[in-house]
Write the structure tokens for this entry.
Amino acid sequence: MIDISKKILDSRMRLVGDWDPKGMMSVDEEGGCGVTGFASTVPVRGKHIYEPSVQMHNRGNGKGGGIACVGLDPEQLGVSREILSSHYLLQIAILDPAARETVEAEFVDPVFDVHSRTFVEPVKDWREIGLEVKPPDVWRYFVRVKPAVLEAFTKELGLDGAPAREIEDEFMYQNSFKLNSKFYAALGDKQAFVLSHGRDMAIFKIVGYAEANVEYYGLEDFKAHIWIAHQRYPTKGRVWHPGGAHPFCGMNEALVHNGDFANYYSVCEYLLQRNVKPLFLTDTEVSVLVFDLWNRIYKYPLEYIIEGLAPTTERDFDMLPIEKQEVYRQMQAAHIHASPDGPWFFIIARSNPDKQEYQLLGITDTAMLRPQVFAMMENEEVKIGFLCSEKQAIDATLHSLASEDPRFCRVADTYWNARGGSHTDGGAFMFTLTGGEEKDMVCTDKFGRDVKLPSGQKHVDLTAEISSASGDIAAKLDEVARSFDAGLMFDWVRTSIASWSWNDVRWTARELVKRAGESDAAKSVIIEALTLLRDRHYPTGEKKRASILDIIDRSLDEIFASVTLMPQAVGASRFARIDWDTRGELRAPEGLEEVLVVDAHGFPPEDDCDSRYVADGFFLGWKRFICYGYIGQRFLGCGLGPGTHGVRIDAYGSSGDYLASGIDGLELYVHGNAQDQLGQVAKEGKLVVYGDVGQTFMYGAKGGDVWILGNAAGRPLINGVGRPKVVINGTCLDFLAESFMAGDPLAGGGFVILNGVKFDHNANIVELASPYPGSNLFSLASGGAIYARDPRKTLSLDQLNGGYFSDMTEADWKVILPFLEENERLFGVKIDDLLTVDGIKRSPLDVYRKVSAVKPAAVSSPIPEGLEDEGDE
């Protein structure tokens, strides 16, 4: 039996030479990049990676950006599908035009049968699109290794009898290594480097923003099944050079990442021991080198590769089946020093032409120190999966796609986060496309378990003409509209929508928009009713909830956009509006004016962003704000200063990071999912989120009353002090209320209510497998409490680190009951449903468990009596 992996790695010894990894440690930049990617069962044009890339400028700096595409359209490349799948698509970046002939004479023509060679003609002047450095010339070659060359290489490596394609892959790798060594790594003035050399995939990168690749190289109409992009230069190496920008390729995979490694030198030493030498000196490059080593050379299953990159630890390891523990223990023992240590999130696009398979993979680090969001949308004709640094990039992609293709909805069917290094999902999800011309897509976690959407539901076709509504809908609408009662209007639609046709839904929404223009009173009521329809859960029958939300969002945007802009607004209406173009016209409210409507769409994400004008409006006398059209703008609610009681802000769209941070009295309602760093160092006020929240929510908060309909991602309420009081109806990933210092909840101190429930697709409240899946529950807390809905006693002591389970008392229930009552009013999560277990309503003291921060002196045993076996599975 030939040991192919050993012979391949031995053959690389001559490539390594005299190399000291310590010499590459001089440049080290903080990581904080923007990464995005999507995989679609139908080919998608490059223009649709443009918008999400633009949306993450605040995560970049214009000094390095790149994109990769996998699963290409052969016609646009001038080759047959057979050639595309069988040949290597070699793309070489030529920095010095005079070097091209030499590069080809040494590393292309002598070793390859070249089916075609093409210069990728730029379609824009690089200066016209704001670039500071001319992008490299890109030459594209479809090649196979010449038989005689491959035969000699096989004999040299002693691999006679080994699979020919594996040997040819290794030749491609080593040939690119030699080219990069001579024309890039060995020179002060770089001349050329290999962008990518895999099959059915291509990489482009420049000194600039990622989307400039689309503009410069004319990729707007370039079609692929998978696209990924990266903003910002690398965290090590030559940071202002196209060769250092992400993505980096292994063989048939391209990798981008957000973050940086503390053990970069250790990973390099690990690779050196296996004769693998990085040339671009970046942590992104060594990441894909490790992935390629374990995947192509060692042939580890993908699950084990993910385990090697993000090891399972502590309680999560103990929760694994014994057979997995045994394998994972061996994986960690052999390869732990190649596991990236630090904050990171990888996106990997892969091609496997032999199986007609493409894959988009997202992996988060064990400690979940970098933000990540996954999403899916599917209907009968198309399926698409996403993974991004921020939700707003996903929404931007869907908006771009839906603007020209009715098969796509502007709202994903589901959004979620991964638990790094966990027993629940392994911190990784992959979207795999299979099949010939007609692709199918499945989404699985690290362990191969499917992520499935409810069946039997359909998206709306927004291109269909709207006809008159059926039955008595028109008469009923007249009746509820004349009542000027938003609750009545909401109840009518909520209880009827499952039986309506899509035409009925669209007709009703259109009529409500028309009636909103009749008077301020009508506008107020209809905005409130549509907002309730967006925020609440109710049965929708065969209709996808995402499409209903899309219709509601479009209707609300239309109503908001109809409000008169300043300076034309003259105080005759309750509403006045500003946008980016009229921001300089902002003034104090006049006449009847009470509500300032802010169109956030045109504002930048930071600096001169819409939140500054909201603050300016407050100081001019405005106290009621409706802010819509968000595409990731940050800091909403910040900067208003102390004593802001009586101020209310409603946010619609994809609001950005740091929302409600530092608030002191105001109320802020987010009508949908929120993102990272919400409510940091909040002092007082009310925050309501009708969806999920992202990383480090309420960090260092001193106060505030907060209600979250869905989940919180990692690290919520760390270092909370004073009296923050938070209801989370879902769960969170890990590190809930670590180092919480919020006093005694029975004496007015802070606490968290963790309900551990969700709505199913029929709008029923169902409990999660556990109210909290991770370790580090209330870890190292010295004050406050967690009140967890845990009637089945799934929480166990090994999830705590310093806390303990104490008796739930009537006094505790009296403290949390008002918050659960408001939770019911806001979200429709009924207290009776929370207290019902297996169809029987139970006492609150049996349903909720209290986790206290400081063990009382009366408890002498480390395990309170009666709790020794709680939580065992």
Q: What stands out?
A: DSSP finds 24 helices and 33 strands in the chain. Residues 25-31, 859-873 have pLDDT under 50 and may be disordered. The radius of gyration is 29 Å.
